[in-house]
Amino acid sequence: MHRYSWVWLSLILTMGLGSGYGQAAELADTVSAVKPSIVGIGTYSPGRRPPSRLLGTGFVVGDGRHIATNAHVVNMQLDDLKKEQLVVFVGTGNNPRVMPAKVVASEPHHDLALLNISDRLPVMKLSNRTTVREGENYAFTGFPLGAILGLYPVTHRGMISSITPMGIPAQSSGQLSAHKIRQLRQPLMVYQLDATAYPGNSGSPLYDPDDGAVVGIINGVYVKSTKEDVLSDPSGISYAIPVRYLRELLSSQTDN
């Protein structure tokens, strides 16, 4: 091979390796920046063992005192006799801060909820983009496997593999319910990812790896129960609710 060809080959390899390292470094910086805004959602009961129970993930939005999550994560009946209360877990490790929380808004159709806390925490910015594109890569951070060994957020990456309606046509009229008929008439378009999200990831922010701007909210239960109820245990696929619906929910609180 001509010596100039070797020079060009070396430059191409160096640029390629450098580009990959740069992308990894940027994501690492973004993860470090967003982690203080990621919280666990759960309940606390002083007489229970263990007293804390992690149910899902949330992230700080708005004025720093609001937490966004999935509505199904906080759709529960608290046991007043056992002094059970809704809480958020803040921090990392075996002794996270436990902060009382209150549901101030819930939007079941898009499976979104807003909680209010007394302290102010670092806020994640919401993307101004009206759409995302198939083939783009994003990251999400949450608590996929709970907090058995402590509160340790986990980050995954996934590509937008499709922008797809949440409802799917039934194979026969016997499979149609009133709920499915409504969804077929006005389907909710969601982001399908080629990444696996577990139940504890419900409510995790889906964000741009470059700047941490949130483009969606991971949904591991509500969407799958409607879009994939014909599958027993789908793997490697997750969904996210577009962030514009969260913006609308936040605006409704501001207007009030």
Features:
256 residues, seven-stranded antiparallel beta sheet, six-stranded antiparallel β-barrel, 4 helices, 22% helix
SSE map:
Blueprint: H1 3-34, E1 38-44, E2 52-61, E3 66-69, E4 85-90, E5 97-100, E6 102-107, E7 112-116, E8 137-142, E9 154-165, H2 178-185, E10 189-193, E11 205-207, E12 214-219, H3 224-227, E13 238-242, H4 243-255
Antiparallel strand pairs: 1-2, 1-4, 2-3, 3-7, 4-5, 6-7, 8-9, 8-11, 9-10, 10-13, 11-12, 12-13
How would you describe this structure to a colleague?
By secondary structure, this protein is α+β, with helices and mostly antiparallel strands. About 20% of the residues lie in helices and about 30% in strands. The protein is built from 4 helices and 13 strands. It has helices at about 5-35, 180-185, 225, 245-255; strands at about 40-45, 50-60, 65-70, 85-90, 95-100, 100-105, 110-115, 135-140, 155-165, 190-195, 205, 215-220, 240. A 7-stranded antiparallel beta sheet has the order 5-4-1-2-3-7-6, covered by helices on one side. A 6-stranded antiparallel β-barrel has the order 8-9-10-13-12-11. Strand 1 (about 40-45) and strand 2 (about 50-60) form a beta hairpin. The longest helix has about 30 residues, at about 5-35. The protein is globular and about 50 Å long. The termini are far apart. About 35% of the residues are buried. The model is unreliable at about 5-20, about 170-175 and about 225-230 (pLDDT under 50).
Give a quick summary of the entry.
This protein has 256 residues and is of the alpha+beta class.
